[in-house]
Amino acid sequence: MKASLCLCLLAWASVPVAAQTSAPPPQVPQSVTIPRVATPPSLEDYLDGTPRPDEAAVTTFVQREPGDGVPASQQTAAYLSYDDDHLYVVFVARDSEPDKVRATLTKREAFGNDDFVGIVLDTFHDRRRAYLFLVNPLGVQLDGVSGDGEHDDFSFDTLWDSEGRRTPFGFVVRIAIPFKSLRFSTASEQDWGIAVMRTVRRNNETSFWPYITRRVSGVGQQMATARGLRKISPGRNVQFIPYAAAARARYLDEDRPAFVNDSDGRAGLDGKVILKDAFSLDLTFNPDFSQVESDEPQVTINQRFEVFFEEKRPFFIENASYFQTPINLFFSRRIADPQGGVRLTGKKSGWAIAGLAIDDRAPGRRVDPEDPAHGDRTGIGVVRLQRDLPRQSAIGFLATTRTFGSSESRVASVDGRYKMSDTVVLTGQAAVSDSRPLNGGSQAGTALSINLDRTGRTWGAFLDYQDIGADFRAPLGFVRRVDTREVHPFVRYAWFPKKTGPLVSVRPELSGSMLWDHAGTLQDWETGSELQFEFKGQTEITVEYNESMERFSGVEFRKRQNSVGFETAWLTWLETSAQVERGDEINYYPAAGLPAFLADSTAAELSLTLKPVARFRVDQTYLFTRLSRRGAAPAIDGGGVIVDNHIWRSRAAYQFTRGLSVRAILDYSGVLPDAAAIDLEKEKRFSADVLATYLVNPWTAVYVGYSDGYGNVEIDPDFRDRLRPTRSPFHSTSRQVFVKMSYLLRF
């Protein structure tokens, strides 16, 4: 049955494109000539809806979704101009129901489900990578980089200006982008790729000028041409960002056990130099890699493989897309505590170049003081080259090296992207590794990834194959599992009703996977089906069914799972989502003397966001997982529940101005196991976290924070050299206050 379903999926994926869709509507190349102006436009010039005569006007916005090629439901005009130092765009966004425009005053890059407008700029006009500048109706910014064949990278930050205001007819937004914040060629007259856009959330609508469709893979080749940019240059661009941080903490050292008081002061410097208008040289000395914002809650108990957490540290998230490859061979969170580093990124003459050299003090502090490697620094190097080829294709090379004490690891790979047609793309990567662990010996392995993807508005499919050798090691990457050969087909269809109504689309999906080890033993297989209903008002209902087999500890476990999900932002002041999943799961960590066994599994996730006013929001998140005994499980004393895991986060934030905000987070995590069934300890943790932020731009900021942690453990009053568990989670375990300041100096 599994093999037949996978063959069926492969058959769907191989249906000729012509048989799946009608030909996309013809696209006429468009261009706009941007005039140079003597005086910059101001927001006040447009508040009555009347434009200045000096700008180039773009008004023919066309939907990408929900209607493909349908005129935008709301009238929008974008007015473009430039001077010696800036590119300007002013959006006059009219709305037939202006009171329904969604706009919140929030911190930078956090406007979520608001309406927004934006401009996309391909400054090298190579139809490969483009800058994204998005702004909500109150002027809150979000910037990023978009690349064909890559997900949009919103970790990118640069310095630009935006402002917005609601009006009786809708809203007006002004964007001013310094040429100093962009990279482009040195030609005296520039042609850039350009697109402008608007999103109307309540209608699930995104519209563009020029016409951009999902019938064609990627945005770059569909953008219009901006002409008329003469005698512009980013000029000299050197910036330094000094920072200083101080913290005072008291925490429970569970190894002693005893409370420890600790004071820490730290200062450092980040620098950036622009070379030949195309390359960024970033330098860092003694960077502060502490995270101001905590990780989002995730379930980490009874997980067979490592859980992925996103990078949040500024030095690494900027230009992170340069280092991305199909197999994740560079995961920057592997670097914990560097003293200094240098990074080079940029693009010129069809070559994208990136390099990183940095150290890490953390591994040398983790090993035993008697170990010869104690105190050693880890040396890390990463090099990435990518060459553009015709038809939005490319070939690339990545190499990483890591040395620590007598250990050493090297990884090298070649990857490529070949665009076979407007909708079909073939990508692949081949990698080799050579590792010498601290305990001696050596390992050498290979890895391979191939993906054939067909993207379209209605039909979509991909076939993915990955082969990771048993001795492949990438300590700087994120590779959950080795000794695998996996094939993963997927096919989807989207149906869009012709009649206007609350239903926007219906999307059925089928997927599957089969995984063998290199001895030829089938380790896992999975078949999945999903049906998604999309409604106006950002409302979705999803139903899923999965059936799978997983081999663990030499035993085949058959599993089934059903889930139902719902999410909506129908009301401007309320966003909510819920998902419930029931099925089977393996107890990967059985109690001593028990084999791994299959248990009943229940998982639920609930989130709720309240925005009673534009400046204030409250977020509630609750995650629940349970493993329960079933009839086939080993005999266990103590009832049916094996483990319950509760995770609760309450977050409240108030935005006084676009720069000044305060937020508070309350977190609770409870792990309640039956020790006779699972090898987990009872744990209850509670923490409170308050942060005040004054953020002028991503580099000029002041943070003042306080955190307080509690748990169900205390020093035993009868035996001071040990800890004892308690029923209450309100025993103090940590307390910290900190101040962090940074300032951007730009020349």
Describe this structure in words.
This protein has 747 residues and is mainly beta. Among the domains are: 34-230, Immunoglobulin-like (Sandwich), CATH 2.60.40; 242-266 and 685-747, no CATH class; 306-478, no CATH class. 3% of the residues lie in helices and 54% in strands. The chain is built from four helices and 40 strands. It has a 24-stranded antiparallel β-barrel. The model is unreliable at 1-26 (pLDDT under 50).
Outline:
globular
Radius of gyration: 27 Å
CATH architecture type of the domain at 34-230: Sandwich
- What is the end-to-end distance? 66 Å
Question: Roughly how much helix do the residues carry, as a percent range?
Answer: under 10%
Largest sheet: 24 strands, antiparallel, barrel
> What is the arithmetic mean of pLDDT?
87
Strand fraction: over 45%
Q: Please mark out the parts with pLDDT under 50 across 5 or more consecutive residues, or reply none.
A: 1-26
Structural class: mainly beta
State the CATH topology of the domain at 34-230.
Immunoglobulin-like
Number of strands: 40
- How many distinct helices? 4
Name of the level-1 CATH class of the domain at 34-230: Mainly Beta
Key descriptive features of the protein:
747 residues; mainly beta; Immunoglobulin-like; 24-stranded antiparallel beta barrel; 40 strands; disordered N terminus
SSE layout:
Blueprint: H1 2-13, H2 17-20, E1 31-33, E2 56-58, E3 62-65, E4 76-82, E5 86-94, E6 116-122, E7 129-135, E8 141-147, E9 161-167, E10 170-178, E11 189-200, E12 205-209, E13 224-230, E14 238-253, E15 258-275, E16 279-285, H3 314-317, E17 340-348, E18 351-360, H4 362-366, E19 378-389, E20 393-404, E21 407-419, E22 424-436, E23 443-454, E24 459-468, E25 484-493, E26 503-516, E27 522-535, E28 539-552, E29 555-571, E30 574-587, E31 597-613, E32 616-628, E33 641-655, E34 660-673, E35 683-695, E36 701-711, E37 713-715, E38 723-725, E39 731-742, E40 745-746
Parallel strand pairs: 1-13
Antiparallel strand pairs: 2-4, 3-12, 4-5, 5-10, 6-7, 6-11, 7-8, 9-10, 11-12, 11-13, 14-15, 14-39, 14-40, 15-16, 16-17, 17-18, 18-19, 19-20, 20-21, 21-22, 22-23, 23-24, 24-25, 25-26, 26-27, 27-28, 28-29, 29-30, 30-31, 31-32, 32-33, 33-34, 34-35, 35-36, 36-39, 37-38
